[in-house]
Amino acid sequence: MEKRKRIAVYIDGSNLYYKLKELGIKNTTYFQYGNMAKWLAEDNGTVVARRYYVGSVRAKQKDKKAMKMQKNQVKLFNHLRSLKEGFSIQRGYLMKNDGVFHEKGVDVKMAVDLLVGA
């Protein structure tokens, strides 16, 4: 009897967000991430871990853009953690430089998890 493979799906949230926008998917907050994980695994095994890696927004009351981003991110996190989607969220942070946000620490977290999981 063949043993089923155990599959972990790790998503770089920022890269996926921009790809979904490029494809014309408007509501990325409520995208079916769990179904995408199943599709990626196909019939090759069982998905045993689902992780979503993203820079966490820390908003100051004066920064309207950051406050809106934080509000939307909370909705996304709640959706991802729902029973239907089943993701754990691994957070880096966002650093603002000259009015532009840059993600920090996410790639390192993902790389470490990949090595430990291997």
What can you see in these coordinates?
- The chain is an alpha/beta fold and 118 residues long.
- The protein has one domain.
- It has helices at residues 13-22, 33-41, 64-81, 106-117; strands at residues 5-12, 45-56, 88-97, 100-104.
- A 4-stranded mixed beta sheet has the order 1-2-3-4, sandwiched between helices.
- Strand 3 and strand 4 form a beta hairpin.
Task: Give the helix/strand layout.
Elements: E1 5-12, H1 13-22, H2 33-41, E2 45-56, H3 64-81, E3 88-97, E4 100-104, H4 106-117
Parallel strand pairs: 1-2, 2-3
Antiparallel strand pairs: 3-4
What low-confidence regions span 5 or more consecutive residues with pLDDT below 50? none
Shape: globular
Largest sheet: 4 strands, mixed
What's the domain count?
A: 1
User: Strand fraction band?
Assistant: 25-35%
Kindly report the spatial arrangement of strands forming the biggest sheet. Answer: 1-2-3-4
According to DSSP, the number of beta strands is 4
Overall structural class, as computed from helix and strand content, comes to alpha/beta
Total of helices:
4
What percent of the residues sit in helical stretches (DSSP H or I)? 40-55%
